[in-house]
Each structure stands twice: as C-alpha cells, then as structure tokens.
Amino acid sequence: MNVKVESSGDYTTIIVEGRLDTTNAGEFEKQMMAVLQDGCTRIILDCTGLSYISSSGLRILLVVQKKMIAIKGQFSLCCLHPGIKEIFDISGFSTIFSIFPDKEAALNG
Amino acid sequence: MNTFEEYADKFRITCDPETLDCCMTDAAFSIFEGSGLLLTQGGNSFSHQSEGAIRLILTDLQLFHDTHLKPLSSPVLFSFRKDILDTGEDPFLELWQDRLKSDPIVQIKTSGKSSFQPFSPDDPLFTFAFTSLSGLIGAVNNFIGKVMGEVILEESGSHPFPRLLKLVYNTLSADQKTVVQALEGIHHSGIVMPLLLVLGEINAAEYAKGLISLKIQPKEFFSEILAGVAGVQAYSGFTLQKPGREKQSSDLIPLGEGDAIEFKSTLRWDIRAGKTNQVIERACLKTISAFLNSQGGCLLIGVRDNGSIEGIESDRFANEDKFLLHLWTLIRSCLGRDFSPYIRTRLEKADEKTICLVECQPSTRPVFLRQPGYEEEMYIRIGPSSNALDISEALKYIKDHFPER
Fold first, then answer.
1. Alpha carbon distance B310, B354 (integer Å)
2. How would you class B163 by CB atoms within 10 Å of its CB: exposed for 0-12, middle for 13-18, buried for 19 or more?
3. Inter-chain contact B134–A59, Cβ cutoff 8 Å?
4. Prediction pTM value
5. Is residue B81, in this structure, part of any structural domain at all?
6. Is B244 part of any domain?
7. Does B96 lie in the same domain as B44?
8. DSSP code, position B158
9. Which residues of A touch B159 (CB under 8 A)?
10. How far is B86 from B80, CA to CA, in rounded Å?
C-alpha cells in the first residue's frame, strides 16, 4: 500500500494505492490522523489505485468520516474501482460516505 | 397456482414405511408401497431415472414419515416438481418481476442503489457482513462474466442483468428449478443467491452468510439454513447426475480447442502419408489420458484443428462399429480397462459426415499411457495442449491431485 498526501488551497487529496487491509491499516490510520490534526476541513480520498479494502480499512474511513462530521468538515471518496464501489453499494456503505466518480465531481460536490 | 412455500405448507403424505421399496419400472426407478406405486398428492408416481434420487426419497420417507417432513427434504422437492412444474406451470415465472424487484443483488446491479440498511460499525456483525458480501459480489461478477461469454443479448435499453438471470433460469432442469424455488420460498433468498448456489458458483456457507449479511435471515438461523441447503444439495446431487441434454458437437466446435476441448482429424489415418500411423493414434490417447488426469473434457475425432469437418470416414474403417471397436480397444489396452467408466463415446452427424465425441470425466486415480513401442508416460492438460510429465512432476502431481482414500 502507498499513501500520498497533496495539499492545495482549501482541500487535501489523499491518494491511496494497493491493498488496504489489516496488515497496513494502522499505518494508514496514522497518516489519516496526521492530516486531520493539521486542521484540514476538506479531504478527498482518491481511490484510483486502491485494489482491495478490507473491513479494517473501512473502519478507518468511518472514523475519519465521524471526525469530519464533528468539525463540520467534508470527507469525499472518488475514483473507486467498480468492484469496490459495488461492495460499498451492496453493503449499504455508499449511503454513509459521499462517493464521486472522479476528483472534479468530488471538488464540486 | 401454488408457490413452493404454499405447496410445502400443505404437503402431507401417509404411508407405511415398513412396506416401502424401490423397484425398477421401464427405464426408471419407482417407490412402491406394498404392491402399488406410491403417489404424490397430485397423483404422480415417485419415479426418477436416478436410482440414487429414488433411494434418497425412500429413506427420507422411512426416517420422517411420522413427523412433519421438512420443507427442503427430498419427498417435498420431488413432489413439487411432479405436481406443479411438470404440468407446465411455473409459479416462479409468474412472480418473477416481484422477485426481481425485491432481490438485493438485482437492485444493486440494475440501479446501483440498495434499500438495504448496513450494519452499524458498532454491531458485532459489521466486519462479518462486509467480508462475506465482498466474496458474494466477486462470485456474482464471475458468474456474469461467464454467462456474458456464452450468450449474445439483443440490444435493449434496460440493464442486461435481469435478462441474463431469466436466460440462465430457463436453461435449468426441472429439478434445478425446483431447488431454486424451494430455497427462495423457505429462506426468502430472492433469485440470484439460490441460482448461484444451484449452479455451484457459491457454496452452502457463502449462501447462508450472504442471507445473514443482507439481514434476510437472523444469524441464529445460520445452522438451520445450512441444514436446509444440505437437504436440497443431497437431492440435486442425485438428480443432476443425468443432465437433460448431452453436449452436442455443434455446441462444442464453435468454442474451439481449449482446456476441455480438443479436435483430431482422424483416429489412425495419416492424411499426409496416406496410411495408418501409430503416432496419430497416440495423439488421441494422449488427449484422453490428459483429460482423465485433469478436469475432464471432450475429444472430437473427425474435426480439423480449424473446426471444419473431416469426418471419421477418412479413417477408412469398414463401418462405424469397427471404428468404435478400434477406439475402445486402444483405450482399454493402452490406458486400462478400469478407466472405461470415465469415458463415453458417441457418434454424431455433421455436414453429412460423422464425428466421434469422446467425453471424459476426471478420474479419481492417475492414468498412465502404456502403448507398445513407447515408454510409459503420464499426461495432463495444460490449456489447449496435453503435456507429458517427467517422473518427479508426475509424483508431485499424483500426490497433489489423487489423495489416497
């Protein structure tokens, strides 16, 4: 798994690549928390290169989502692989997150 | 019209288990009570081509005659098929649209939306649901990929998934349709999950976990769902042994050569040299032994590599019987007599010529090719070719694929 953080203007893009599972969820969580502590109120998670997410990965997204709601921030997901998008859809999680087909839509959303 | 659920609810059978027996009548096996045929509520005999299926029904009746038979037991499944489906009615198709609409997987596939409320992250089932649904979606997508490869849908504005489901449902045997309806009726599992289970795309545990993950059934019912599935699988295990339709050369040739299909122009005749040649015979035997050692497959003799028809007439046997006799002599002498049960041969006409189909089932024991004038060899199928293994590879392959029983 690779995580890249890009800050530009009023939003931060986090690009996550590879498999996000229990072996690297801790590391991912640390990086997400660091972004939150910087006081960022608008986060876009770019999932173009995300090939797999397990329930431990999902839990971290839920934690971030909770924290962002608490500070009235905005947390969006974009560019989900169709297979992953489908799992989110069928398990109902797409109703919890703001999911956009691409980054532009996420910025306008 | 009775749905399976209604039929199973009203199902009663009175019989004296002491006097029940399985007898052969014409080409089928039937259950007799004393000297007369035992009949379903609809007045149909308990007769089936599969002796195993009839014995299963018989023993279920002997075990449970005095208690209420479970709805997913073989006597109920079989009676429903005979009394309802075999009359040409199909209650499932009448309610198809409603079932489609309420099926959670169809909802996602067609609209991308689900009315399903996810488990909260605090719920102990949160992780379980996410993990099992990930697997289920993978299986659904595999299934769609496979079916899409086989059928060509006409252009239409609507999403193809419901049409694919109907096409697949219509190809099922009456026994398979019974199982789909029974599972839906008793577990309220919609169309997709029972269909995937019947087609072997998901197993019993995946089916049961899917139902719980989608909140269709509570987790307390997990064991009960598994037990129900075991009942229908015992029934379909016997009834599916005799598929309704054999593979036809017209279905196989367009698929081309592959893991499980091989074409050979002739059995023994070397067309270039204009004489019989043992090497040509060996090529057929390699393929058959490789299929037996691998996942099975079908050898078509009389078909050229490009799929055009050569016909076994080119082998210059006096007649078709002589051709088959020669083929079977080769199989028995070079592969072993005891592998005959895994091999079936059949002749078919195509373009006014004759093709021989040699259908091979995977063997439970390793097969070695022993042909006079050659070293003993073991072949397996790798993609569209039959490959010889050297000794160490063969030992490893046998250890991995033919566990000692």
1. 8
2. middle
3. no
4. 0.64
5. yes
6. no
7. no
8. S
9. none
10. 9
Do residues B312 and B284 lie in contact, with contact meaning Cβ atoms separated by under 8 Å? no
Residue located via tokens 């079932």: B99
The answer to whether B313 touches B352, Cβ cutoff 8 Å, is no
Query: The tokens of B122 are what?
Result: 């605090």
Helix ranges (H only) for B112-189 are 125-150, 160-171, 174-187
Contacts of A95 in chain B (CB under 8 A): 118
The interface pTM score, or ipTM, of the predicted complex is 0.75
Residues of A with CB under 8 A from a CB of B: 54-56, 58-59, 62, 83, 86-87, 89-93, 95-96
Query: Which among B116, B126, B214 has the least Cβ separation from residue A55?
Result: B126
Residues of B in contact with A56 (CB under 8 A): 127
Identify the sign of the CA torsion B237, B59, B180, B219.
Answer: negative
Closest listed residue to residue B173, CA positions, set B225, B101, B240, B227: B240
Task: Indicate if B163 and B230 belong to the same structural domain.
Answer: yes
Which DSSP state fits B246? Answer: P
Amino acid residing at A74: Q
Q: What are phi and psi of B279, to 5 degrees?
A: -65, -35
Bridge-based pairing state of the strands B385-389 and B353-360: unpaired
Which residue in the set A59, A83, A93 is minimally distant from B118, CB to CB? A93
Point out the domain boundary residue: B85, B109, B130.
Answer: B85
Q: In which domain, by residue range, is B14 found?
A: 4-85
- Beta strand B47-48 with B28-33 is antiparallel
Find out whether A45 and A78 touch, Cβ atoms under 8 Å. yes
Instruction: List the Cα angle B310/B311/B315 in 5-degree steps.
Output: 100
pLDDT over 70 percentage in chain B? 94
Please count the other Cβ atoms lying within 10 Å of the Cβ belonging to residue B372: 7
Quick one: three-class SS letters along B266-281?
CCCEECCCCEECHHHH
Is residue B164 in a domain? yes
Please report the number of interchain residue pairs, chain A to chain B, with beta-carbon separation below 8 angstroms: 48
Q: How many domains does chain B have?
A: 3
Q: How far is B108 from chain A (nearest CA, A)?
A: 6
The residue-averaged pLDDT of A55-79 equals 92
Of all residues in chain B, what percent carry a pLDDT higher than 90?
A: 49
Using the 3D structure, point to which of B179, B214, B239 is the last residue of a domain: B239
CB contact under 8 A, A86 and B131: no
Which segments in chain B show pLDDT lower than 70?
1, 26-27, 66, 149-157, 240-247, 404-405
Which helix H or strand E contains A35, and what residues bound it?
A: helix A25-37
Residue with tokens 């959303």: A109
Burial, B324: exposed, middle or buried (Cβ in 10 Å; 0-12, 13-18, 19+)? middle
Q: Determine the Cα–Cα distance for residues B374 and A84; give it in Å rounded to an integer.
A: 54
